[in-house]
Amino acid sequence: MNIRIIISVLFFTAILPADGLLCAQSAPTDSLFVKPGDLSNLIFQLKTIIEKNYFDKEKAASLNKILTEKFANGDFKNLSPEHTTEKITQLLRKETNDIHFKVTHFSTKAANNQQQNQAADNGGIAEIRKLKNNIGYLKWTEFRAGPDAFKKTVQALERLKGSRALIIDISNNAGGNGEAGGFMNDHLYQSKDYQQLLVKKCNGETRWHQSEVPYNNTEGPRFYKTPVYIITSKNTFSAAEYFAFIAQETGRAVILGDTTAGAGNPGQGVAFMRGGSDIGFFIFVPTCQIQTKAGKSIEAIGVIPDILLTSGDWLEETINIIGSTSAKGPGTKQSTP
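That's the N-terminal domain of Peptidase_S41 sequence above. Prediction below.
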């Protein structure tokens, strides 16, 4: 079987694609239906990747049995690429209760989109500004890590230095590299105890170990005593969820908005294409579990906000909530995990 493996990328939530949780987006194709050869290859590759990489081997065996039966019964036959990948994605999520499972497709004939993402250019930070009453606002849309991204993060924090309170908006953040959360946290927490909150166990491992990436950098301003307010929504995924989760569990920030997606298990993304085909597939399979030392997980649950935002303007609503608090306000207490 002539298969071209396009990419194989590890994404780790909080400490993560991931992921840009799911960087491979569905693209239009010229075929109305997935061709039999492409469908057969998709199921074969999916079963192979699940068997090899999914952290729960018992569920992996069960999934592969179900996929084999449904393929044999023609459940995925004569479907569009969009319908095929969505149907498989929903099946995997239903059987495992794991939101991070994802199957998408792409086409070699699709337009080559090389447009630069503004958030990517700014280390994943889309907007920084000072609001009324000296409230700092940071809109964070992607968790990007590395020297260039961290430099942009420090520059953003410099602009917010001296703020009375800090709003970090991750309501449209699909996650990404969890090291970004660790780097940001180093500027928010005076104590490093928060790094011990989460533990992780990955495929093939028998013991839980520390999940949070430790940082002890000296660059950038510190906000140890600044009240922090984090805005979340159902569009907050993966590593971004753990950023909010740590802040909530330690009492460092007030979480506002709506419950997050509940995509807590980090994983691995693989893209592949059958030789001679014009359609390829991207599969994201969870490879690890993350929870608190007490066993609390956000998988399929999400982070439930301390304050539910209900207006049409969440930012203005958050500003009003901050204004109704005392001068010190909430979000400065840092409890020990």
